[in-house]
């Protein structure tokens, strides 16, 4: 149980275009979803916290107008990287919690974004 | 957010027990102690979590010091598949950061055949 999927697994896009990444909880309803970014040889950095039906909460230094997060249902959250630039190339990972009372998070396999 | 301190790297031989330490001297009373691990180019994998008492699951055991200022993740018999970066993270504590995980650098575990 507790499986989280991401789509696509890797994407290449041109500079200036937008890219949408989907995160789905497959066998549970996610009260909260999280988005992380990881650069090569570095640790994960939390970007934002997303609750179903409400606006995402962004970490300090993360541009909310650039990284649009939509959490339209209890099983789906999307991250859209708008007007992507080469410096946005990174490994984007989502996670989900299935119940407020349970603190553990289940992570997706990640999406490798390359902006050319 | 409370910080944790872990060794940068550790090594073990296959089928031997591994004890991965974590110091968290500034832990608050409501912080959970989480352990996750990550293989290259994959999302992290939940390992175990605890609050005050020692915890066991099919993957590992978590031993928490009585004063909660440190903990140890125990892999009872290391396998090659256990080679990963292990992250010890505090989470909870209430307030605006409830449930969020802030990853440190973790411990790179190497398992030798």
Find the structural class of chain A using helix and strand composition: mainly beta
Query: Mind summarizing the main beta sheet of chain B?
Result: 5 strands, mixed
H and E order of chain A: EEEEEEEEEEE
Cα-based radius of gyration of chain A, to the nearest Å: 13 Å
Mean of residue pLDDT values of chain B: 92
Number of strands of chain B: 9
Termini separation of chain A (Å)?
Answer: 37 Å
Unreliable segments of 5+ consecutive residues of chain A: none
What spatial form of chain A do the alpha-carbon principal axes imply? Answer: globular
Strand share of the residues of chain A?
over 45%
Structural class of chain B: mainly beta
Order of helices and strands of chain B: EEEEEEEEE
Unreliable stretches of chain B, pLDDT < 50, 5 or more residues?
Answer: none
If helices are DSSP runs of H or I spanning 4 or more residues, what is the number of helices of chain B?
0
Instruction: Give the strand tally of chain A.
Output: 11
Radius of gyration of chain B: 14 Å
How much of the sequence of chain B is in beta strands?
A: over 45%
